[in-house]
Prior knowledge:
Layout: E1 2-11, E2 14-24, E3 41-52, E4 58-70, H1 73-81, E5 97-99, E6 102-104, E7 108-110, H2 126-138, E8 143-147, H3 164-179, E9 183-187, H4 206-223, E10 229-232, H5 254-258
Parallel strand pairs: 7-8, 8-9, 9-10
Antiparallel strand pairs: 1-2, 1-3, 3-4, 5-6
Helix pairs in contact: 1-3, 2-3
Amino acid sequence: xxxxxxxxxxxxxxxxxxxxxRESVTxxxxxxxxxxxSESGLYKIEAAVTVQxxxxxxxxxxxxxxxxxxxxxxxxxxxxxxxxxxxxxxSVSTDYCVQNNEITAILGTTYFVTDVYRECFYHMNAWxxxxxxxxxxxxxFNVLRTGNWYFIxxxxxxxxxxxxxxxxxxxTYFYLAAKQGFTVQFALGTVLLNQWDTSRSPIHNAGMRKHxxxxxxxxxxxxxxxxxxxxxxxxEPSYSNRGxxxxxxxxxxxxxxxx
Length: 259
């Protein structure tokens, strides 16, 4: 079997090849580490494993296209600071949001990177994220709603704060969204870890409540300088009509209602 890896830097004039390898491998093959990419920018990575058929020709048995964003922390913050946020400016309008001193309609959609969907904040594909966000901009959207809606324990540190891998994925998404003019509304949706066990709800469980507050504080500390990012603290609260939304939620929970 042979492994083929190609790395391209995305530029205004197109993709520029920066790295190619072709080497024999033994299956199953799980990990290949791309050499360090020193120049800032967005990179596309294509990988494939081939085997020879009976005629001696290579046949692709598996392949993927992914990407990474290489930026310093200073470049990252500078990029999102250029964003003009949605705001209420009563001197312009009391009924509509304003952006760049102009009345702006909110045209939003839920968006996760489509290769792994809700797992994208642990398995970020920066190249595909950028491509899809550009398409959403062309379709006329200007607000993206998303979040960590898939329970991946490794996303969190032991205290409930956001782990490094999750933070880097979120930074990538937020930065690429800002460059295309998008406001992002982010829901920390799986903080309860198990919505079918009300004893683990932050309303009932002091330990989980501390984890929740640590997570929210972690989000605020990490993304306070991202002018295009908003946090959705309460996502689908459980004080709904009994059974109307999800039987796993503590509908009309007395303790929650009292708080």
